[in-house]
Amino acid sequence: MSKRIVYIVGDLSYPNGMSRVLSQKVNYLARHTDYELNVVLTEKASKPWYYQLESNIKYVNFDLNFDDLYQMPLYRRLVAYRKKQSQYRRLLTDYLMEVRPDITVSVMRREINFINDIKDGSRKVGEIHFNKQTYRVFEKSFLPNFVNHFITNRWQKSLEKEVRRLSKFVVLTNEDYGFWQGFTNITIIPNPISFFPERHSDCQSKQVIAVGRYTYQKGFDLLIKAWKIVHEHHPDWQLNIYGPGNREEYQREADALRLSQTVHCHEAAANIYDRYAEHSIFVLSSRFEGFGLVIAEAMATGLPAISFSCPCGPADIITDHQDGLLVENGNIDGLAKAISYLIEHPEKRQQMGWQAVVSAQRYRENTIMQQWIQLFNNL
Hints:
- The chain is an alpha/beta fold.
- Helix content is about 40%, strand content about 15%.
- A seven-stranded parallel sheet has the order 3-2-1-4-5-6-7, sandwiched between helices.
- The longest helix is centred in the N-terminal third of the chain and has 26 residues, at about 75-100.
- The protein is globular, with a radius of gyration of 22 Å.
């Protein structure tokens, strides 16, 4: 019997990893199952989608625009958030009571605070695209540390209470699974690779690639500092960074270190797999991750991956010294040494690239989505 499933996605108008993966998964289900699929959005109803949905997927956009709150001072944001959250609860309750889905999937954002209380009869499933150690951490520099810790603790305890009430709770990595001790409803399903390329890198070009949003989380400032060290020994190699956001800020950082001829900060590339294939090494310099899907994508293209062993994801994806190298989180010198090692050992670089393609097979879309279908059918 067909199932009716509601996915609460939030936003499809801006390029980011979570929206890309969610749209990919819903589209796969639309193409390969008889599920009746519904998507709930909350942001920018008038803005065109960056990620498209299959025509047989129904959707609704409440146009609440929570993201606009981040442009407000904190005191105004708190008042406006409570108002929007109240609207959201009312709109989502009315919607679920009308649709009466069999399963409702939350991505553990604002709706997790009340979704278990909606009596629409559906089984509630949560999937988190962040890691527990860095999710719901409250840090304001103008507040004393004990106040930040108190708010963080209260916020995380509230989350844990709601997670225990879910029918199923899905995390992305074995590492993150270990942080949710005592939860009996938890399972691990990693993110899928959207496309498995036929073209692979030969690992011969003198180019290194990094991909991600230009934000503090992605640690491109750390990567640029590491590249300064690499450049002193290998001035003929180039570093290319691709992603959305304020790339000019990071290009200025590189220029200030006299790296303008060797570090290039690009906009997001639509054909990123072609860019991967033009390079020889992939680097992830994130301070933290939910999963780090770009690592698996680069590996699928035949690139050995170098990454900080940050929480959470890289240690799940990379097998150290087999298909890539793991570096102590935040260790700039260590990152520079790892990059230089693969530059200086072309045979090892190529061998790791071949193994990377094999390792990435476990993240094929069909393999991952069959796990989701089994989860839904078991519910």
